[in-house]
Write a structure and sequence with these properties.
By secondary structure, this protein is mainly α. The protein has 20 helices and four strands.
């Protein structure tokens, strides 16, 4: 690994680590309704919103009520987004000559579900499909609301561990408002100002027609890119204003912008490990989980960088040295290191804000982001979902360890009994069902194979597997060789998105409800210490074993077969 890339990776992880404690403590104060510097400005606005919504912030919800509110809110957001997308031609800024991709009912449905679930999977090119008005009023609004809703689910999950003999997990509507006002909005305002300073466009102009040096006319899409760009990363959404996403010079004009945007993806998810530890009164628990995330993240960087730095088979066949890196599809302004860091960060961070073309990675290099998503994005992940998935993997490890010694597993004094294990298994099996079954259907039916317009064989299979893994993980990035704007893929990927959002949130909340109703058992000599290095190894081993059992055959048919084939 080159020295510049090593320094970049090290600086990135150091910045993440430095943000964990202050940002995690701030999140704890926000959702515990503790004092913050923003209270004088935001408390009156919060009170006005509570009156408008007729919400009592102190009224507790059971896990079922919390889940119902989450589903109703997401469903209403999806319906409103669908209606506005279908009507975008009557709103300001619509230019039929520039917007060449039709907003069909199937595409509008897919896009509405995508942004309501923070997936932001895009079966379209932003600059040829959406007006700036649509991107800001419809899509950016959903980035805020859906991101805050996901954060609320994570906080409710934490409360299930922190409370004893309690029926409630908090109030969804209050958590939603606080997530928008105290977390996403301030960070987005600061981030948008920084991006504007760095040269990211912030304008109400939509399309400009200019003459090129060759004398032909070209349409350049513009708009309020800076505010859109920051919330897509902070809110772990990822849908780009432009088709090239983070590789477009209007979205990422400088190396500093690239670094800061990648950092903004993982800052809150990483800090939530500290929030979790503080809410339980056991900060060491959070630091162990953060250590597990960093270890897996670093392993992904090493594997992906090694694969891309060695170069491709085509380069070696052309007589170039084995040390020539694979620059196909890379962001040549920043180099292989930034592209690898972007691939590993976005695939771990539930954010499809890619700055390179993953479809052009080497088979093993492209397998790294694919495997990260198949693992449930347990490294950082989305706003609350990453640590939630990591904890459930840890519970599987505790269950296996308990079977070896004939002891009921515990975590933080909470007993993981038969009912809890059923919920955990329901959570764990959702991903293989929602990813592998539609992938198998897609490679057998003509409608699924029709999407393979550039590649067939193992690489084409990987493109399909990658699409469903990305949609279920609510990530949104893709192997762009798959043409997904068809009735089959618009419907099938939307179903995977809903499974990844609601099929995981509901059992997680049910599990939190059961933990919250329990008391807390004192640790004994037979209790596995979950704030220890040993527990960290158990979590990593469980994640790798479960991932291999579920997905190794699928990976052998795709990137591994492609690697040996070449």
């Amino acid at each position: 690994m080159s020295l510049p890339s090593s320094l970049q990776y090290g600086a990135f992880l150091l910045c993440v680590a430095l943000l964990v404690r202050p940002l995690g403590a701030y999140l704890d104060r926000v959702f515990a309704r503790g004092p913050t510097l923003l209270d004088r400005l935001l408390l009156p606005l919060e009170a006005a919103l509570h009156r408008a919504l007729r919400v009592d912030p102190l009224e507790e919800m059971t896990w079922g009520e919390y889940a119902s509110a989450f589903i109703v809110f997401s469903g209403c957001g999806c319906l409103v987004a669908y209606a506005l997308l279908r009507l975008q031609s009557v709103f300001p800024g619509y230019d039929a000559a520039a917007l060449t991709t039709s907003m069909t009912p199937a595409l509008a449905f897919n896009t509405a579900v995508s942004f309501a679930t923070t997936t932001t999977w895009q079966a379209y090119a932003g600059e040829t499909t959406m007006t700036p008005w649509t991107q800001i009023v419809v899509l950016m609004t959903q980035n805020f609301l859906a991101g805050a809703a996901g954060l609320a689910i994570g906080i409710a999950f934490f409360r299930g561990f922190a409370r004893e003999k309690a029926a409630g997990l908090g109030n969804f509507w209050s958590d939603l408002v606080r997530g928008v006002l105290w977390v996403l909005l301030p960070l987005s305002v600061l981030g948008a100002l920084f991006l504007s300073w760095q040269g990211v466009p912030t304008t109400l102009l939509s399309f400009r027609r200019v003459a090129t040096l060759e004398g032909v006319s070209q349409v350049i899409a513009l708009g309020p890119v800076a505010p859109f760009e920051i919330i897509k990363n902070v809110g772990t959404n990822g849908g780009g204003f432009f088709n090239a996403n983070g590789a477009h010079p209007f979205e990422v004009p400088t190396p500093l912008v690239n670094f800061v945007l990648l950092l903004s993806i993982v800052a809150i998810p990483a800090a939530l490990t500290h929030t979790f530890g503080r809410m339980l009164g056991r900060p060491r628990l959070g630091w162990v989980l953060f250590g597990v995330m960093v270890a897996l993240f670093a392993a992904g960087l090493v594997v992906c960088h090694r694969a891309e730095a060695r170069g491709s088979v085509a380069l070696r066949a052309a007589g170039l040295t084995a040390g020539t890196p694979n620059l196909e599809g890379k962001e040549v302004r920043f180099g292989v290191g930034s592209s690898v860091l972007g691939a590993v960060t976005t695939s771990n961070g539930a954010t499809g804000s890619t700055n390179s073309m993953h479809d052009s990675f080497t088979p093993i290099g492209g397998m790294v982001p694919l495997f990260n998503m198949l693992m449930g994005e347990i490294v950082f992940g989305g706003l609350g979902t990453g640590i939630m998935s990591l904890l459930l993997v840890g519970f599987l490890g505790l269950f296996a360890a308990g079977l070896m010694v004939g002891r009921t597993p515990e975590y933080a004094g909470k007993t993981i009994g038969a009912t809890e294990m059923k919920l955990i298994m329901l959570y764990a099996l959702a991903a293989p069902v929602a990813i592998l079954i539609p992938t198998a259907i897609a490679v057998r039916v003509p409608a699924g194979l029709a999407g393979l317009t550039t590649n067939t064989g193992p690489h084409g299979y990987t493109e399909i597997l990658f699409a469903f893994a990305s949609c279920f993980a609510n990530n949104g990035q893709s192997f762009a060789g798959l043409s997904a704007n068809s009735l089959f893929y618009n419907v099938a990927t939307a179903v995977a998105m809903m499974m990844g959002r609601f099929g995981l949130a509901v059992p997680a909340l049910a599990l939190a409800g059961r933990f919250g109703a329990q008391g807390r058992r004192p640790a004994t000599a037979g209790t596995l210490p979950t704030d220890s290095l040993l527990f960290g190894f158990v979590v990593i081993a469980t994640a790798l074993v479960v991932g291999a059992l579920c997905y190794l055959p699928a990976l052998c048919l795709g990137p591994i077969a492609e690697q040996f084939r070449n």
